[in-house]
Design goal:
There is one protein chain. The protein contains 3 helices and 7 strands. It has about 130 residues and is an alpha/beta fold. The protein has 2 domains: about 50 residues, Roll (Urease, subunit C, domain 1); about 60 residues, no CATH class. The strands form 2 sheets. Strands 1, 2, 3, 4 and 5 form a 5-stranded mixed β-sheet that branches. The chain starts with a strand and ends in a 12-residue tail after the last helix.
Amino acid sequence: MGYDLLIPGGRVVDGSGMPSFRGDVGVKDGKIVELGKLSGPADRVIEAEGRGVSPGFIDNHCHYDAQVTWDPLCSFSCDRGATSVVIGNCSLALAPVRRGGERRLAEFLSYVEAIPMEVLETVEFEWESVGD
């Protein structure tokens, strides 16, 4: 198989719960397609000898609901290695919100998360539902 990216020789932590192992990671069309001792052509190779290789780390409990409106990269998490964040998963979120309830919701978030109201007042509520 040909790969867009081959990452050989790293300590692979695949997120399955199994112990890490020394191996290679093959990527095609932006997705990990194969793990193990790989061979085959690759458009790009990143040598990983002596390094850890992982598909990413998820910050599954954060409160970026307001911050994502001014920091779409959620810098605090990605600066520490997280590649994905989950927001709104503990019943404290800025959506859904009915028109007219924005201030009360911001006050609640301010109280629970100690975010100054002056900061939350900069959020422009342009949504009602999570999908919005």
